[in-house]
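Regression test case RT-17, inverse folding.

Input:
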């Protein structure tokens, strides 16, 4: 029997062939070697930083981009712009000292170095540096009717006034004969065929001016004129002026 009191447990077990004792110097000189290390499926130890957190290697964090989404390449994150959308160049999204460069779609709003420029349509909205201004288009048509001797009268040019906000006829008697007088009347119509006198006829003397303004709203308007005397030829200058 082994003397446990004098030899000790370890020596007794070794003498009897029951255990082999490893070199206990590892605990004294290299304690780091007895710590548990974790390995991945490539038989490589996981890497941690000085705080014990997992680190990302020099090749970067691998992220699979969704189909049609962000493209992640070796050079970084690439964004493919939609057609007619933001202009993104090979160097990325171009932001200059003057601001963000956006390519305007064909037929869209022109975007210049000074900002967003909106070109108003002809007769439409006028956008100025001070803000939004509404510009009204106008119409101004004139015609001369000379040598009028018909006392029965006739209708002049028909105008569609449905889209004209306000309008007026102006008639000037420019006859050379002082006795040349004319009768004028404003007529309106819903169909351009059936006409209604808006008021009583007005007598216009030589070199005189009169205006005709409708008190009833219908689609079409015209001036109806005649000579007072067939022996005195009349010349009329007829103006149609309005604001759209």
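Golden output:
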């Amino acid at each position: 029997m082994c003397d446990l009191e004098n030899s000790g447990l370890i020596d007794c077990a070794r003498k009897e062939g029951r255990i082999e004792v490893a070199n206990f110097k590892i605990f004294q000189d290299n304690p780091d070697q007895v710590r548990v290390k974790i390995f991945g499926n490539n038989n490589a130890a996981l890497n941690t930083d000085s705080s014990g957190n997992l680190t990302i290697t020099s090749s970067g964090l691998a992220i699979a981009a969704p189909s049609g989404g962000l493209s992640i390449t070796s050079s970084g994150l690439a964004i493919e712009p939609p057609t007619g959308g933001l202009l993104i160049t090979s160097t990325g999204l171009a932001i200059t000292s003057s601001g963000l460069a956006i390519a305007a779609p064909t037929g869209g709003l022109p975007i210049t170095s000074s900002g967003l420029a909106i070109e108003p349509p002809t007769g439409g909205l006028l956008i100025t540096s001070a803000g939004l201004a509404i510009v009204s288009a106008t119409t101004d048509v004139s015609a001369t009717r000379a040598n009028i001797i018909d006392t029965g009268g006739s209708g002049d040019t028909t105008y569609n006034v449905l889209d004209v906000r306000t309008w007026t006829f102006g008639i000037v008697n420019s006859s050379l004969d002082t006795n040349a007088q004319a009768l004028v009347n404003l007529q309106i119509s819903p169909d351009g065929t059936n006409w209604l006198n808006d008021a009583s006829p007005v007598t216009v003397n030589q070199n005189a001016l009169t205006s005709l303004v409708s008190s009833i709203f219908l689609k079409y308007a015209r001036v109806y004129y005649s000579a007072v005397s067939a022996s005195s030829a009349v010349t009329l200058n007829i103006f149609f002026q309005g604001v759209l």
